[in-house]
Design goal:
The chain is built from nine helices and seven strands. The chain is of the alpha+beta class and about 240 residues long. A five-stranded mixed beta sheet has the order 2-1-5-3-4, covered by helices on one side. It has a two-stranded antiparallel ribbon with strand order 6-7. The protein starts with a strand and ends with a helix. The relative contact order is 0.13.
């Protein structure tokens, strides 16, 4: 089938503003949008800039807006967003500085990620037998969904609160904080909750559910944010 890719292009060396360019490619219905973008880059216009790596929905590098919705280009099938002769619009993620074409500067996103201490904090000596700190399946299940995050930024860049003020720490960072706040091996929950209780922390969330809808890993992002809010409101880890 033939489809048109309407891609928002921007070259900082030549363009004052982003603009749209359209390319026609021949694809199979079960090809992915990433495959179609490869056809454009490899066969029609080698100057097209985009990020991609594993192409299997694991690395999270090819997050972009496809027909107005945040998604990973490697996970979206052509047949799910287009029919013969129709047009697929593709543009970079919103809310982050534009570098070129479909590439955005991820540093602000990762700055928020680092702010919540996304690592295990435990200064206690390891068990005498030298084994790792064991954890029950039930304790692991308490925070398991947060470990699915691949830091693609699809949730954060779909958030109206983040669009309004990019100082908001954002859904992805809160999910990462949740993953450690509720880990019974970690001893830094109070510090993370303090970060999230600031002006641009978790209370900036307006429960729009955009983040949950945008997540390619099907993480219940809004639910996890709500659990962090409840912990701050009650002062109890449950």
């Amino acid at each position: 089938m033939k489809v048109n890719l309407k891609i928002k292009r921007y070259n900082p060396e030549t363009d004052r503003q982003p603009h749209w360019e359209t390319y026609t490619v021949e694809v199979e219905p079960i090809d992915r949008v990433l495959d179609a973008l490869h056809l454009v880059k490899w066969e029609q216009d080698g100057t097209l800039a985009l990020r991609r790596s594993c192409a299997h929905g694991i690395c999270g590098s090819d997050g972009m807006r496809i027909n107005g919705q945040n998604a990973l280009a490697c996970k979206v099938l052509i047949k799910d967003v287009a029919q013969e002769g129709s047009t697929i619009s593709i543009e970079p993620l919103l809310g982050l500085p534009l570098v070129k074409d479909l590439v955005v500067d991820m540093e602000p996103f990762f700055g928020h990620y680092r702010s919540v201490m996304p690592f295990l904090v435990n200064d206690e000596p390891l068990p005498a037998d030298g084994r790792e700190r064991l954890q029950s399946p039930e304790a692991r299940d308490r925070f398991d969904k947060g470990t699915w995050c691949i830091l693609c930024a699809c949730c954060t860049t779909s958030c109206p609160s983040f669009w309004a003020n990019d100082e908001y720490v954002g859904p992805a960072a809160i999910v990462q904080a949740h993953r450690f706040i509720f880990d019974d091996r970690d001893h830094a929950a109070a510090e993370r909750l303090s970060v999230l209780n600031e002006q641009f922390g978790v209370w900036r969330c307006r429960t729009a559910f955009n983040c949950t809808n945008a997540c390619p890993r099907e993480i219940p992002v809004t639910q996890l944010i709500g659990e962090v809010k409840q912990t701050l409101a009650t002062g109890r880890l449950e």
